[in-house]
Amino acid sequence: MTVRVTAEDGVAVVTLDRPDRHNAIDLDTADRLAAVWRELRYDDAVRAVVLTGAGGRAFSTGIDRAARVPQPPSPYSVDDPLLTIGPKANDLWKPVVAAVEGMACGGAFYLLGECEFVVASRGATFFDPHTTYGMVSAYEAVLMAQRMPYGEVARMSLMGTAERVSARRAYETGLVSELTEPGGAVAAACRAAAVVAAYPTGAVQGTVRAVWAAREAARDRALALAPHLIALGNLPAERQAALFEGRGGGGYRLR
């Protein structure tokens, strides 16, 4: 199972469980995540959710580069399996708290962008490798622009693999709301989720929806441009592959 779900006292813990692949998301994992969010919509015993990654080395490194995503021949459309992996994309309005240990990069921001807030250990790092490999950071940059100041998002998105945002810097710029000692992110996120889960459900979900609505108009307009920017700005697939092969054997340089 690529995604594990446990629940106790009103809080579900959703764990990306591919530690050998840095919890990268393949097509099966993407489908499973979408299914989990839809299932949680109907589980009245769950009133808040914590999202994390197994193994401690990474929350997630985004799309698994080994995954083969079929694309339509039309230059006017792009199929992106990560667009449907988040809770909001699946109409879940129960609060979701992210717990980050290790790396969170690239497509992981699709998930972090749809969580209410982020708890991270002091050893966590955040980066966006797209430009390094000749790809446009579009969806990721838009989602992070709603959590971080413009200059911080621009620097992270443009610097690619050359820089990583530390947990401390992420806390200072608002991406992270609480820092913990290494190994403590899930426990801290569960404590926060338990507090929220104890409150009246209607009030909590209404508040989640209201806060999201404050971001929605600008977000939707920006995301509407994303597929066009990707189609225009991405290097051809064969040139992307050459860049990956030249930087560590076909994947992000993560170590």
From TrEMBL:
The lineage of its organism: Bacteria, Bacillati, Actinomycetota, Actinomycetes, Kitasatosporales. InterPro entries: ClpP/crotonase-like_dom_sf, Enoyl-CoA_hydra/iso. This is Enoyl-CoA hydratase/isomerase family protein. One of its GO terms (molecular function) is isomerase activity. PANTHER family: ENOYL-COA HYDRATASE, IP11341P-RELATED. Keywords: Isomerase. The keyword Isomerase applies. Gene3D superfamilies: 2-enoyl-CoA Hydratase, Chain A, domain 1. Belongs to the enoyl-CoA hydratase/isomerase family.
